[in-house]
Amino acid sequence: MEVASTIADFRNSLKGDIAFVPTMGNLHDGHLELVRIAKRNASCVAASIFVNRLQFGEGEDFERYPRTFEQDCEKLEAEGVDVLFAPIEAELYPVPQEVTVNLPKIAAELCGASRPGHFNGMATVVLKLFNIARPAYAVFGRKDYQQLHLVKQMVSQFNLSVAILEGETVREEDGLAMSSRNRYLSEIERREAPRLYHRLQEIAQAITMGSRDFSVLEKQATADLESRGWQVDYVEIRHADTLETPHETDARLIVLGAARLGKTRLIDNICLEG
Ligand code: PAF
């Protein structure tokens, strides 16, 4: 695996059909699943590791975000990644990034409501990375469903020539979605953490059994989590394609949740294919 830290070196190492996996590092099996999808789709697999300051708000975890570069390199190499791009901030943002991507209004809802500017910073770096790597494919995980949705909107509305591939959420045995932030959890919090997924599962089951009382289901799950000490940002049932509030008759639904356990913010979702 070649490791490039400059844009020029990265571009020189790319050959043929490229599938690209952008990450912020601290890689787990969820990321490696994205790499495996990339490998199945293109002859050259490129990954990036860059903790993007632009998508962290004030008081968020930019400074303490886990940086585990050497272990990450070993994992990517073992999966057969051809090129790793690990840019330095000064080359990616040589001047203050004043040109940014303006996203649809759904970016201010769900995670965007508690993380103002987050998706704008995410989309801006993703667009820069796409322009640098010029990949035929790019792979994103479904755990960050709103991010995936917005990236797809950006690609389609800006006519970008990259096909977005999607990776399923990879879970620990007890159901907790893999996330770099799980390592912030204390032992007690780690035992409690799968509850978010389990509450979303209960909502999904209730809907499958015919319940259409969306707001009651959302409130019950929120109350349960809050009674266990979670600070809930949202538990919401939305339309899976638009992320808009659904009509009672909609079948393609997604149940999404974001909540804090101590200092750690966890997100998860379950998609109900209609
Ligand atoms: O999902 C992530 O890790 C980040 O948001 C991404 C897509 C790498 C952009 O910084």
Task: List the main descriptive attributes of the protein structure presented here.
2 domains, alpha/beta, Rossmann fold, 274 residues, Pantoate--beta-alanine Ligase, Chain: A,domain 2
If you had to describe this structure to a student in words, what would you say it looks like?
This protein has about 270 residues and is α/β, with parallel strands linked by helices. It has helices at about 5-15, 30-40, 70-80, 90, 110-115, 120-135, 145-155, 185-190, 195-210, 215-225; strands spanning about 1-5, 20-25, 45-50, 85, 135-140, 165, 230-240, 255-260, 265-270. It folds into 2 domains: about 1-165, Rossmann fold (3-Layer(aba) Sandwich), CATH 3.40.50.620; about 180-270, 2-Layer Sandwich (Pantoate--beta-alanine Ligase, Chain: A,domain 2), CATH 3.30.1300.10. The strands form 2 sheets. A 6-stranded parallel beta sheet has the order 1-4-3-2-5-6, sandwiched between helices. Strands 7-8-9 form a 3-stranded antiparallel beta sheet. Helix 6 (about 120-135) crosses helix 7 (about 145-155) and helix 9 packs antiparallel against helix 10 (about 215-225). The chain is globular. The chain starts with a strand and ends with a strand. About 35% of the residues are buried. The mean pLDDT is about 95.
Write the layout of secondary structure elements.
Blueprint: E1 2-4, H1 7-13, E2 18-23, H2 29-41, E3 44-49, H3 69-78, E4 83-85, H4 89-92, H5 111-114, H6 118-133, E5 137-141, H7 145-157, E6 163-167, H8 187-192, H9 195-208, H10 214-227, E7 231-239, E8 253-261, E9 264-272
Parallel strand pairs: 1-4, 2-3, 2-5, 3-4, 5-6
Antiparallel strand pairs: 7-8, 8-9
Helix pairs in contact: 6-7, 9-10
Pantoate (PAF) binds at residues 22-24, 52, 55, 122, 125-126, 144, 147.
